Amino acid sequence: MRISAVARRTGVSQRLLRYYEEQGLLRPVRLANGYREYTESDAIAVGHIRALLAAGLPTAVIAQVLHCVHDEDERPVPSMCPGMISHLRRERARTAEAITRLQASQQALDTLLAAALRQPDVRDEVERGASERSPGRREPTG
């Protein structure tokens, strides 16, 4: 099937399908006229790629483990290929570290915001800004 048919079927843009090919995730056959010819398994692989991306895996890791994923009850499930568990654990640890950093950033911002809102001049500015955005508020005349 042509790239447009795969795009329609999977909901993935043609540009993204070309990107997956550049990353080595898809390998469509090239016809004599240069067109890409995708198979049924390519369309299924797109679903697996999307699921792995949604799990936070980078395309470099997906390229290494994509062949280990199969469908079970219409959802992608990893097979026990060599290295699969270590890849998944490594990416999970990376995600957990990122969440921890983001939570620390959020707490620091909350602290800064709370301190700023305790300042009288900032409180007045916030209240003025809120009243200026209120519907029906009239500007004082001369």
UniProtKB/TrEMBL annotation:
Keyword DNA-binding part of the UniProt annotation? yes
Q: Annotated region Disordered: where?
A: 120-142
Q: Which domain of life is it from?
A: Bacteria
Residue ranges of the HTH merR-type domain?
1-68
Give the residue spans that cross the bilayer: none
Alphabetically ordered keywords of this record: DNA-binding
One GO molecular function term of this record is: DNA-binding transcription factor activity
Record InterPro entries: DNA-bd_dom_put_sf, MerR-type_HTH_dom, MerR_fam
PANTHER family, A to Z: HTH MERR-TYPE DOMAIN-CONTAINING PROTEIN, REDOX-CYCLING DRUG-SENSING TRANSCRIPTIONAL ACTIVATOR SOXR
State the name under which the record lists this protein.
DNA-binding transcriptional regulator, MerR family
Q: Which organism is it from?
A: Streptosporangium subroseum
